[in-house]
Structure formats: structure tokens, C-alpha cells
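Appendix B: complex inputs.
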Amino acid sequence: MTDSSSIRFPDGFLWGAATSAYQVEGSPLADGAGPSNWHHFSHQPDAIADGGTGDVACDHYRRYEEDVALMRQLGLQAYRFSVSWSRILPEGRGRINPAGLDFYRRLLDRLLEAGIQPCATLFHWDLPQALQEQGGWANRDSANWFADYAHILFRELGDKVPLWATLNEPWVVVNDGYMHGVHAPGHRSLDEAPWVAHNLLRAHALGVQAFRADGQGQIGLVVNLEPKYAASVGPDDAAAMSRAHAYMNRWFLDGVMLGSYPDELAEMFGQHWPRFDLADMALLLEPFDFLGINYYTRSVNRDAPQNPPPHAESVRQEGAEYTEMGWEVFPEGLTRTLQWVKQRYGDPPIYITENGAAFADPPAHNGRVADPRRVEYLRGHLRAAHEAIRLGVNLKGYFAWSLLDNFEWSLGYAKTFGLVQVDFSSQRRTIKDSGYFYRDVIARNGL
Ligand SMILES: CO[C@H](O)c1c[n+]2c([nH]1)[C@H](O)[C@@H](O)[C@H](O)[C@H]2CO
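Resulting structure:
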């Protein structure tokens, strides 16, 4: 039975929506910008399900003022976006492209004028192609490249951005880009993957140090977390669940919060697992101000020895509701995940930096898009977030994924997550029912 009791979030709880540069901006090479590895990857034959690329996307690079007006119409208090590294540094390092900085200054000025708090992510997967060609995140120097880039942004944009995130979901870069080859750069290497993960976290730590030197506001790390369940009570499935949990949920957080990697990773990677310097592990513990958690679903796992690490596979649940991504709708997993972070990692301040769902939305009709399933998804997860607060989790805010229908990476444009529908043939925006629902949640600071 749907819980209809009203709930209210704490005063000052921050309500926002999120996007990322390559998914919404378009104009990837405009005004002196250099190509990213996602520009390169999306133009490879058969890389993207519908042959889509980020060449146009939501045309946000040119329509940002219209989109800020939409954010204002929704009553957003904050907007989470990412900066395209190769707009700022076309070769990834060295020469700065002033026009790239100017775009983000214009966007930030519009947001601040609208009373919307910017939350900027330094890296949301789109690495400059020039750096990819020098080994990308597999090159130990990548951490320094990132720190130099971060320093430029803190110096040039720092007075306009109160909330920064170093990386978005390093796990996806490793798993999708280096283990399974379905994201840029399309590698499948048990030898590269652990080093890529390590260099990403070294980059995060050096970025935080750069921020401490001359940043303003707060800085955090954004990770994707997905609670793991066992498909049966048998020992093999329990072990598979534990490996999957270590592989997705603990790998990066243990690294930066505990200064060590789960033992299960060395076991599952075997001779491919490196020996990491103790000095590196000490660096990873560089303290940061908040944790961004992206939550979408849970997975139920069974043993799959034939699969690459974590040697597990997810099992579809009879009778459960699934989104267009094949992700089970499981709001209680959000409460469980937030409690787990609180208990394991010392009660850090947390923002839910992404939560949302892809459903097959109807085309706009008379200025309306009926998306009841997304309304119920958001309602259920907001209740789960509120329950976590009631249980003592230090949850500071929530960002819906996504403001706009956009480029869903290797799946192209068919999977739509937006609170606002984008007709990609006309670039017309239409606020969906879920957008109006979210507007009312923000206005009430609750349900
Ligand atoms: C593994 O799923 C992640 O939690 C996740 C889901 N999502 C993400 N990460 C990314 O941060 C976004 O760019 C995606 O568009 C979004 C929707 O797929």
C-alpha cells in the first residue's frame, strides 16, 4: 500500500537536479575546445546503441540560458553539472582555452542570478583525447594532469562554485571503460583496471590538496553504490554477493576512507592485482568535505565463476518492477545503503548526487508529458531518503537525475531520465509531470 503520510525534510536540505557535460552540452569542439575520449569513442562504429554521439545532445552549450530558466521554473535550489576538461585545456594540459572558461563563467553567472547554487564536478568521464593517447588514467602521471586542471578551475571559477566534486563514479570508468570495454576508452584489461582505479583515487586526493591550497567552499567525491543481495542462502551465492559488494561498493570508499583496498580484490584479480605503495595509500586518505552518492537500484547476485571479477551475475526478481535500464525499482536499498555508509565510514556528510529512473515516456501532448512511473519512483526514493535521515544519516541534499533527457552513454538517446523531456529533433523542452511533482516537493521541502 502506498504510504501517503506527509514528510518534511530538515530546514536547509538542498534540492537540485544533475547533468554532465558530454551528455547535455553538444558543440564538443566549439570555440577552441579539444576532443574528449568520449567524442572519439562515440564516433567509433557500433560504439553507441543508436549510433548517437554528443555532437548536439541537448545543445546546452548554446541553450544554457533557456535551461537555467527551466531550473528556475522547477524551483531548483542547486544544479549539479560537470566541466568539460578539454574545453578548458584542449590538449588536456598546458595551453588554456579562454573561451572554454568563459562558457562556464556565463553559466555560473546565470545560475547565481537565478539563486541556484552551482555544484560542479571536475571529471564526469570525458577525459581529453590528447591525454587518453598518453595512456589516460592508466598513466601514473594522470593524477598530476588532473591536479593541474583542478587548480586552474579553483583559481578561475572558485569564487562562483560553493560545492565541488572531484570525480563522478570512478568505478564506472574502471568497470565500463577498462574491464568491459563498453565505455571510453573501450579497453578490456585486468592489468590496467586496478591501476586506473588507483590513479583515479590519487587524482582525487591531489585534487583535494589543490583545493585546500586555493579553493573556496566544499569538495567531495561522487560514487555509485548498489546494495548487494544473495540469490540463495547457499555459500557460493553468499560469497558472490560479498565479492560484488567489495568490487562495486567498497573498492573506492575503503580506499579513500580507510586507506586500504578490500582483500577480496587481490583474491579475485589474482596475479593482475598490483602491490601499491604505502605512500600512495596514505595520500588516498586526504580528507574531503562530503560524500556524493549516486543510487539507482540494488542487485541480487549468484555465483558466476566464468565471469570476470567479481565472478558474479545479477538475477532478475520475479514480480519486481524494472526501469528501461533493467534496474529493479528498490527504494529500501537507498535507506540501507545510506545507513551502511554512516556506520562503516564514520558518518560523513552525504548528498544524494544522483537518483532517478529511465521509463518510456510518451511524446509531449498539449504541453504535458505524463510519466506516473517516474513520479512514483521519486516519491518512493524520497521517502527512503527521509527514513535514512530519521535513522540518523547526515543527509544534506538530493539531486534528481536528470534535469533533461540526454545522451545515455553507450545506450544513446533512447533511455530518458529527465524531469524535462527533450525533443531532439526540435530541441523543444517540455516539463514532465515528474518535474512538476519535484517542483512541489521542493516548495514543501517534503512530500
Ligand atoms: C552504474 O549506475 C550508476 O549509478 C549511474 C547511473 N548514471 C550514472 N551513474 C552517471 O553518473 C550518469 O552520467 C548516467 O546518465 C546515469 C544514468 O545511467
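Residues 143 and 202 are 6 Å apart (CA to CA).
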